[in-house]
Amino acid sequence: MSIILMIGTFDTKEEEFVYLRERLMACGHGVLSVNVGVMATSGQFPVEIDAAEIAQAAGADLHVLRGAGNRDRAMEVMCNGAAIVVQRLYQAGRFQAIIGMGGGGGTAIVTASMRELPYGVPKVCVSTVASGNVSGYVGIKDIVMIPSLTDLAGIHPISRMVIAQAAGAVCGMVEAELPLPSKGNAPVIAATMFGNTTACVQACACRLREQGYQVLIFHATGTGGKMMESLIEEGYIDAVLDLTTTEIADELCGGMMSAGPGRLSAAGRRGIPQVVAPGCLDMVNFGVRESIPVSRFKEGRVFYSWNPNNTLMRTSSEDNLLIGEQIALRLNASQGPVKVMLPLRGLSILGEEGQPFYDPQADGVLFSVMRNKLKPDIEIIEMDMAINESAFADKAVQLLLELIGNHNGS
């Protein structure tokens, strides 16, 4: 039997949580109840961690919160307190999975606590907002969001079905008894890839696996870059093959696949080896063509429809000036070994000669800035070829293995 933590606002959703608790116990598991609702409940089931303890963990008093009537303040306190308490309970071995339910406010509190838990711990949230953009709630963690279909306002045929299936989902996940993520014995290398650098990165991964390395490939769509940086920060990663740094173009040019200002930083802080290339920095990602804020860009921009929902914009010389400076700034802060590779004949499939994004002048600006701004101890290897050529992958693997060998021997 496993213990499943059940978290939510029991003051406003008590009836729903009574039913959820029954379903979890019917599956043969114990329930640890955590109430994050500010107001009083009718006490229809045992609550092991009450709202007063949650508020106290965040340095607040529940009675003061109730009297103040300030919803924003209450939300802030309960979000912070829930994250602290749930993490503490997990570290103490009190539960093996977590499930919660809520509307917009409840979902914010529930998922704030879930985001503090390690990857692999089952996390399920039934939410009224699960059908929209949930990136703000999920972040970069493995939270399963289940749409409530109707408002969480009583038990009826629809809510009964959704809650029962959510209970079954989290029970099934915890019963799977899969090992939590760990590095194991083989060193772990993180690599970044996009459709436009797939040939290169897959070739690198194949060669590295033949050498006994584990390779985790992250799709450079914003979320992928954030996930990689997080895993590096948490110590899961031993070295980085960052050949697709395109998310920085989206960050600086207003695209939809930015990984934020923390991109290209964690490996440097951790001091682990990294080989970096400007893969797909010749493009910025937008949605459908009509969604592009064309008024922000000069005339003459080149666009390419990658698929019906994804339009790419070619970066300009002006863009590449900023991009190159940012890459140099971030890599110059590295505490570990770094090598930079420049594919002089194309940063992507679309950037090769004869393709829509072929623009040697714009690429040249990027290369020039990196040559001039990177600190002297970061070696730059210029390759007279496109990034997806086999020889480029061979060289990238060679350089990374050399860095790893030197780093481990130091």
UniProtKB/TrEMBL annotation:
Gene3D superfamilies: Uncharacterised protein family UPF0261, NC domain, Uncharacterised protein family UPF0261, NN domain
Residues covered by the UPF0261 domain: 3-177, 187-403
Pfam families in the record: UPF0261, UPF0261_C
Record CDD domains: Tm-1-like
InterPro entries membership: Tobamovirus_resist_UPF0261 (IPR051353), UPF0261 (IPR008322), UPF0261_C (IPR056778), UPF0261_N (IPR044122)
Domain of life: Bacteria
PANTHER family in alphabetical order: UPF0261 DOMAIN PROTEIN (AFU_ORTHOLOGUE AFUA_1G10120)
Name this protein carries in UniProt: UPF0261 family protein
Record organism: Paenibacillus thalictri
